[in-house]
Design goal:
Strand content: 15-25%
Helix content: 40-55%
Shape: elongated
Distance between the termini: 44 Å
Number of helices: 15
CATH topology of the largest domain: TIM Barrel
Strand order of the largest sheet: 8-7-6-5-4-3-10-9
CATH architecture of the largest domain: Alpha-Beta Barrel
Oligomer: single chain
Radius of gyration: 26 Å
Structural class: alpha/beta
Order of helices and strands: EEEHEHEHEHEHHEHEHEHEHEHEEEHHHH
């Protein structure tokens, strides 16, 4: 799948986090953060593996005390993906994280304020070839910036915070940097990143901070991140949700796939919202299908449709789908009916066909069936349903008539 946003991405410098390229035209990466105590090595690793399986390319762990730094030393060698240390108020914890062997640091300019401490961390990171993310947060700017910008957070204040931190790094010759300017207000966040993109060519890490729980958190994060990605801004992303971090990784991956910025790794499952014509419990079948495909790396779009009357046509662009009718499931490939199966075998059949198409292709799948026979059976069930339910099962015409009276 191609997308025009791939062609307008702003050219940025490239850094390497562990073995993952960020910026410079590299694929946009997905990040998340563990919620465990970093000192809990086994618990943290278990969560990291779950995040990697869900699509995370990079993971961040807090490094707020010595026990956490010691935990990182044990975690990093066993982690399947690069580890970023999130450092809070103590610059010595940043130095400890570097010593632990992490792949990257995240520093908040609003927390570590002493320029000499900042430069000391940058020098150590440079000596160890460890990149640093300048992680500006709208909720924790330096007090002087609040005063300068009228006691409020502005895009200009956030960009100035990042650029000031960058200047300290440059004083000691450190340029292995990526930057974020996150805020919980979407408009503020978008404006800040737009300005930052104009001010620097360092790779940018996108995110809406404190987005909250799903679904509102997903909506806010998608609104902010997708807006910028479609403008060609951004090299790595994180959904900050009040939820299991696995949901963050999945959401990030799905967004990039939907925008055509990463190849689809897993099934893109679509389902009709169900209506009066539905012959099955669409939600139940969709949930079963989601579970069946969850661990399979099948780069197809698959549709679950409630009825054979409209389903194959509405989902004709899906690679594969199934629609219910007359107590049977009508399987279709690219909108073409290919087979009829029992209702209780629909999900099992979808999985089998999806695996076949992934391995052999659509044409080979079509060649193994009697298309004319499948089409006739689908048409018969469609006519039977129309005869039984009528043309206006959802009472659409009544609504149209009411609207015309207004």
């Amino acid at each position: 799948m191609q997308n025009s946003s791939q062609n307008i991405r702003k050219k940025t410098r490239q850094i390497v986090v562990g073995d993952v390229l960020v910026g410079g035209g590299a694929p946009i990466t997905v990040q998340s953060m563990t919620t465990t105590k970093t000192a809990d090595v086994e618990g943290t690793l278990q969560q990291i593996y779950a995040l990697a399986a869900a699509g995370a390319d990079i993971v961040r762990c807090t490094c707020n005390d010595t026990a956490a730094a010691e935990g990182l030393a044990k975690i990093v060698p066993r982690s399947p993906i690069p580890v970023v240390a999130d450092v809070h108020n103590q610059y010595k914890m940043a130095l400890a994280a570097i010593a632990s062997g992490v792949d990257c640091l995240r520093l908040n300019p609003g927390n570590i304020k002493n320029p000499e401490h900042i430069k000391a961390v940058a020098e150590s990171a440079g000596e160890n070839a460890i990149p640093i993310r300048i992680g500006v947060n709208g909720g924790s700017l330096h007090p002087d910036l609040y005063k300068k910008y009228g006691g409020k957070v502005t895009p200009e204040a956030m960009v100035e915070s990042a650029m000031t931190e960058l200047s300290y790094f440059e004083e000691v010759g450190f340029e292995n940097v990526k930057i974020s300017v996150k805020a919980s207000d979407i408009s503020l966040m978008v404006d800040a990143y737009r300005q930052l993109s104009e001010a620097t060519d360092h790779p940018l890490h996108l995110g809406v901070t404190e987005a909250g729980p799903p679904p509102s958190g997903l909506i806010k994060s998608t609104a902010g991140i997708a807006t910028l990605l479609l403008e060609g801004i951004g090299d790595t992303i994180r959904f900050s949700l009040t939820a299991d971090p696995v949901q963050e990784a999945k959401a990030g991956r799905q967004l990039l796939e939907a925008l055509g910025l990463r190849e689809r790794k897993n099934v893109d499952l679509i389902a009709c919202p169900s209506c009066g014509r539905a012959e099955i419990n669409v939600y139940e079948v969709a949930e079963k299908a989601q579970t069946a495909f969850e661990e399979k790396e099948i780069p197809l779009q698959i549709a679950i449709m409630g009825c054979v009357v409209n389903g194959p046509g509405e989902a004709r662009d899906a690679d594969l789908g199934i629609a219910a009718g007359n107590k049977r499931g009508h399987l279709f490939v690219k909108g073409r009916n290919v087979a009829v199966v029992k209702e209780d075998e629909m999900v099992e059949t979808l999985v089998e066909w999806a695996e076949f198409i992934t391995e052999h292709g659509v044409e080979a799948a079509l060649e193994r069936v009697d298309l004319e026979k499948a089409q006739k059976e689908a048409e018969r069930d469609r006519k039977d349903l129309l005869a039984e339910q009528g043309d206006d099962v959802n009472e659409d015409q009544k609504r149209v008539d009411l609207i015309r009276k207004i």
